[in-house]
Amino acid sequence: MSKGLTSRSDDYSQWYNELVTKADLAEHSSVRGCMVIKPYGYSIWEKMQAVLDQKFKDTGHSNAYFPLFIPKSFFSKEASHVDGFATECAVVTHYRLKNDGNGNIIVDEEAKLEEELIVRPTSETIIWNTYKGWIQSYRDLPILVNQWANVVRWEMRTRLFLRTTEFLWQEGHTAHATSEEAQAEASQMLDVYADFAENWMAMPVLKGHKTANERFAGALDTLCIEALMQDGKALQAGTSHFLGQNFAKAFDVKFASKEGKLEHVWATSWGVSTRLMGALIMAHSDDQGLVLPPKLAPIQVVIVPIYKGDEELNEISEQVLIITNELKKKGISFKYDNRDTQRPGFKFAEYELKGVPIRLAFGGRDLENNTIEIARRDTRTKETISREGLVDVIEKLLEEIQENIYKKAFDYRAEMTTEVNSYNEFKKVLEEKGGFIAAHWDGTPETESKIKEETKATIRCIPLKNKQEEGICIVTGKPSKERVIFALAY
Amino acid sequence: MSKGLTSRSDDYSQWYNELVTKADLAEHSSVRGCMVIKPYGYSIWEKMQAVLDQKFKDTGHSNAYFPLFIPKSFFSKEASHVDGFATECAVVTHYRLKNDGNGNIIVDEEAKLEEELIVRPTSETIIWNTYKGWIQSYRDLPILVNQWANVVRWEMRTRLFLRTTEFLWQEGHTAHATSEEAQAEASQMLDVYADFAENWMAMPVLKGHKTANERFAGALDTLCIEALMQDGKALQAGTSHFLGQNFAKAFDVKFASKEGKLEHVWATSWGVSTRLMGALIMAHSDDQGLVLPPKLAPIQVVIVPIYKGDEELNEISEQVLIITNELKKKGISFKYDNRDTQRPGFKFAEYELKGVPIRLAFGGRDLENNTIEIARRDTRTKETISREGLVDVIEKLLEEIQENIYKKAFDYRAEMTTEVNSYNEFKKVLEEKGGFIAAHWDGTPETESKIKEETKATIRCIPLKNKQEEGICIVTGKPSKERVIFALAY
């Protein structure tokens, strides 16, 4: 183990970068802006995927797969979509390389594509072009499809997990007979995301609408979940869009209604990405490393033997086997680290870095006393307890840790949410404290843009079921009926 | 339901194409050579993935993710690899589009990449470039990593699942301290593939070595599993490569051995792809549609009510609920199709087309008699049986179907494997019968190429544990010690 992490208070950004690489989550690749997700990081992503995938299936969705490439012309078909997505992207122009005769591999100019292909930044266009063939009548609706895929958006400044040129995500794309049904779907999927964020990631989120400025290119309404990171910055953790009939019109997708009328189909799309990994890391971790919610930890319990000589190790291993057999029965994941190449102190630091929720240390004296040392990662406290009923203790403790880190994040967010009533106050809180700032706004894109230009803060969302209260816009003094949530954001 | 399928005997190729689209497995997309995998097809692929993924994990592998793009120069680093993969591929040359002022979206020539990026056709190069940073000493070995990903190989003639420009696959990439260990890994993963093919796909496979001509570009040895389709053509269903130190040398990946010596690392790679879907379809299906092995069928049992009026339907549905509750307990997947928009005959044909292993039909008389009609897809036989112990009957029947379709494919292969002792006989069998042809060969690439040019047949493999027997090459008359397996292939 190399020396410790930079502390969050010294340099939050540096702390994050070091943590991601030192905890073996991800690293930069040789391809600009693209990351390598390392096995430990990927195993967390797999757990996220499994939970989300089951939730999608439980709400009636099926997975499918659509092409990586999208013909350039598809982007032009939906007016606002083209500006949002057809700019910074990876463009495939040729389909062959050749040897130039001097041992260099060059692009074969004779193999130029008639129409360039874009590596998908999002798949609405190719999917709605496909749905056209799937939908004739109301009997074909709804279509409830999700895709797990990689997407590419050419980013100039990248950060592991948070903003990378290629990232992994899921994108749901549904088709409906009515506007109401599509809106209900968008709302349902937002709830799925919020449930996942709060009950699996242990990360409280605000559910709300994006303003017109921040809406998905092509959507009539973008719903989002917004989380607060430990540096007081917001992170958009998932979005669910009501697309109206925009893509159906762009790709001419109509259905015959029960009454025999031809109507355009209503659409939603919704997605979360490997960005959630960044959120998970930043929501809970500390200066010693990752803090993982037990429900998403690839290893929930690590057991480290502390021994003198092979004989004692064998005795310990025998007792550990009894514990691990019981853990297996309960479906609790574990690792018994009996490597003889590293000392216990090294192992302790390693599993703290990697965020393993519970650490058991089993020493020679524990053999005699029928005890074991149990340490929890979230509070970094430890105690020596009897091995009687150990696995029940572990099971309960895992639940307690899950709740505790949620509560900690929830309390932090409460403390870091401030109501302000003037633009001066707004700027002061933004600069000195950060966090979510609840303020009155006149509802215009112009005011929103002005605030963004002057302070870099954006409206994260107009919360759902927002308290209605009379007020005046902090910038223009115009009347306002509700507070919206501002923050600096990732 | 549109009219039936073309029969296999009339036009095998047409039968396949119709089956893939009519059974809702996949379809061609608007992007040349790329397919859309539809929800039903994808649900079979997901089942395959789940089984394989568990097998990889059970053998100590972890998943990770590497970039989609590979810098052009990486391909030049391994001499044979560049010829094999850096020719027909998707080349990204630009990273921005712009509006030309006349409303057209064009490539922004100012956003030209300094070095072109290739969409990965396979990931050895980018992965070994990454492993360089992961490996210093023997303690870092072995690395046992797998990746589930999309890859692109620019294909001129494509067929759904069998040969598409973009396809989905997994690629294992392992790093070892010794040649022996790497070879054992390659061999182990071949066994994993063979086990999966035979015991899940119910598809018998030959395990063997590829000849030098057919070897993976960059490998010292390519192991493969070869299956026989119902038209007598072979299909390579999976490969596992021993790469020696080729990629370690190309990317300068060395490790300090226990003795402190710097040595190049030994490598394997292994993969199976959505091509397995094509194999699964062609191995078992018939003129009525798909025949799925129960272990990979997304729906194992379908239940169709046959009723007059809502009251009878309600009574049937009540009884069906008892059955489905029991099926659930046993982990048997099912669908109760009580749509009132389609007649039973239509539904029967639909589930035959989709290859559901068992169909139950529940009619009014079954209410009185405590009976049910049970039909099996593989033999297309049906009988009316008592509902007492029904789910046990179903459980046993699913196993029986799994075994039966394996046996059928096994017997077909036995019948379609022919030993020949002259080139004339070889050509006659190839033309009139097809299948696997076991013949003596002098071991030279020249003779192999000559046979391929003259007959299109290739050596599918030199079987593992091949019977050693003296013979003479069917073409050159030179001495040979074993027969190898020839066939026309997909």
Name the CATH architecture of the largest domain in chain A: 2-Layer Sandwich
- Summed up, the domain count of chain A is 3
CATH superfamily of the largest domain in chain A: Bira Bifunctional Protein, Domain 2
CATH fold descriptor of the largest domain in chain A: BirA Bifunctional Protein, domain 2
* Alpha carbon gyration radius of chain A: 26 Å
Specify the structural class of chain A: alpha+beta
Average pLDDT of chain A, rounded to a whole number, is 96
Share in helix of chain A: 25-40%
Parts with pLDDT < 50 across at least 5 consecutive residues of chain A: none
Instruction: Tell me the greatest interface.
Output: A-B, 63 and 63 residues
Total number of helices of chain A? 14
| Largest sheet entry of chain A | 12 strands, mixed
> Terminal Cα separation of chain A, in Å?
30 Å
CATH class of the largest domain in chain A: Alpha Beta
Number of strands of chain A: 25
